[in-house]
Amino acid sequence: MTHLELLSPAGNAEALNAAVRGGADAVYLGLASFNARRNADNFTPDSLQTACDYAHLRGTRVYVALNTAILPSEVKSALQCASDAYEAGADALIIQDVSFAHAVSSAFPGCSVHLSTQANIHDSWGIRAAAYIGAKRVTLARELSLPEIANLSALAAEYDIQTEVFVHGALCVCYSGQCLMSSMIGARSANRGLCAQACRLPYKLLCEGEVVAENTGDYLLSPKDLCAADLLPELVSAGVTSFKIEGRMKSSEYAYEVTHVYRNVLDRIVLGEQAHTSAAEQHLLKSVFSRGFTTAYLEGKRDNDIMSYKRPNNRGVFVGRVSKIQDGVVQVLCEHDLHAGDVVEFWTGKGRTTQTLHADFVMNGKKAYIPIDDKSARVRISDRVFCVRNASAAFAPDIFKPRVPLNCSAELSQDKPLKINFCVSAPDSCEGVQRSIASRLLESSSPGKLCASAEGVTVQAARSKEITFDEVCEHIGRTGQTPFHVASFDVGIQSGVGIGFSQLHHTRSDALASLENTILSRYRFRKPFAVHPHFPQAALNNSTPSVCVLASNPECVRAAKRARANSVYVSVLNYRRGQSTYNGVLAKDVAQASYPKDCILQMPNISHDALGTSREAKLGVNLWEYVSADKPVLVESIAGLVRAVSLGAIPQAGFGMSITNALDLGFVAELGASKAWLSAELNIDQIAELAKSAPIPIGVKIAGAQELMVTEHCPLMVHGKCNQECLTCGRRMHAHTLLDRKDFEFPVVSDLFGRGHIYNSVSMDALPAIPKLIRAGVSMFFVDATLMSVEQTAQTVGRIVHALNHINSNIDAPQKMSGTTSGHMFRGVV
Fold this sequence. Notes:
single chain, 830 residues, alpha/beta, TIM Barrel, Thrombin, subunit H, 5 domains, eight-stranded parallel β-barrel, 23% strand
């Protein structure tokens, strides 16, 4: 069986200690600011060196996450960060930006490039793109089913690429790498590691302005947590190499307990034993963090059962119900024992109240007696009680644990030097985590042994008392301030010899230091090849500025053309007969047989292979059949770009590709893109900087709707039971919005696959930036008319055309429309 890797989070040094002690084969962590958890207690180059040494001495690999979008001024810093990680001993770099991954894939010998789940790889063309990039591993999108994963793993193996799958932890409701909600609302970019978790906030779904299903719960974008422990056998059969636990922002208790459970399950799989989790293991998983568990998309689930509508944070373990209240003491009839120091939560009819169990708490059989601190809390009989912090699972860090098991041989012969030899123990002689450590260390050594020795002073005849076997073992075995543990001794002592205990100590220390250097030697003194990123020369761009419009129905297409738009795009999701939308609402009658022939198709950023439980397979829809050779097409992913080129089309790189720097522009041009649309997260100065070296024409979004999320779960399912016949769904024929706490309404559109598209609550209007953008070299201006009426489409295009026609006149620059936003055009992101 191929080695199965358990990959655990290490948000800080203590969590690293916890993950390794729990049995992780590898850990992933952040360095500096180029990682998707910038608010974690990330490592510095110096502390990363220490972390790598700690992990590598125990055979644990270290992957450094550099999985954020990289702004124009940050490319050199990002390359330096990658270099620092490599020199510190990183085994792999986890990267989101595909052009950055391509640039460093050959620069760091012995350090693999892994594509992050943020790279949005979810189909076979994404795997082919990963091969071109030079990636050695792909972290697949969380929205894939088991049959899809098996198909992609088989294809990846043909390219010598490993696949990695998340098996536990938080689920994002949006496809990773495609979320702009936190960014547009608060300038905290999820693609830059500062997600504000807007998806965990309360919303109400409105249908034609009326609230839908008020009793469902308020957290309509909050999924349950993933728990795939019982699907590990199926994932192993699917060809997955690495099983990833989410949680770099979670506690060390979480890192230890979750890793420990999954380690045990994987070990049972290897041994051919019953692999399913026990009740005790499930209890442990819930006790450290749980929003409720789901296997979600792995088993083809996408309905309300995967959502945590009523609670967006840790619900812990259900303990029992209140059975009696007297004199400020609540009696709970418990299904599980409680302990002093636990934190419990009472789910009352008026909300939730939290209580820490102090020393006056009493556990008597199945009854717990809990004095309530908050006398105003409205706890009632039959209220449910949950334990949200289990004090008994508290983690005590120890930098020397887990220890590496060693076999020691020593020779004490008169008139010969003292000899001490240490070898890493054979895995079969070890148990638990030490078995894993020994196995990992030995699998990379040749010929299956890892030993080091040292010689000491010459052994003399005993002057008073000869040394004994027990004394030799005791003093050689004192390894307290080292990462090692002596598991067995083979000591040869000539009769009548003696030696000072200090000599045993010195020689033991020399032998252990030699073994440590042997283990770490392949990570020492590594130097990357010089990285010279290719920044292409700017193309001579004398193009007349053009207005490009994305429309979702024939009437808006014609309105845009009458208003003198230069190019009109139609999403292929709306191009299919019967799928036109007006203001985001599916047309009730078929009235779209006459899209103009010169429309350019926009391919979706999400396009699964048609197999298993994918929506493409279920509905029998292949949108790529509309793409023709020698015709332009707008693609929104690296997979789409590779696929379009293979079909002989003329691709343009769209906003979904998150083009944020010169490397990105050069890379998409190299792959065959004829034009490129820049990320919506760039500001006007960053756009101007990129325009200087753009090898192909570039454009920006200037007006219209701003898509914030794409979700596999359809938000319209809040209505209730759904037959998932999305092509003809009646709910899609009504206008829906998500109402937030501040009474902003975010339009929701469900497409023909039932995937949700959530848009910003205010339309974009950045027309005042047009003069500066023109001077900088931007030649294309994009209007997203998905949520516009025919009249609004014509008016918006007309305003831009007028501004372009008078760009060199004395007429003032166009003013921003009231009630709109300029997005990041003037503010950018951090």
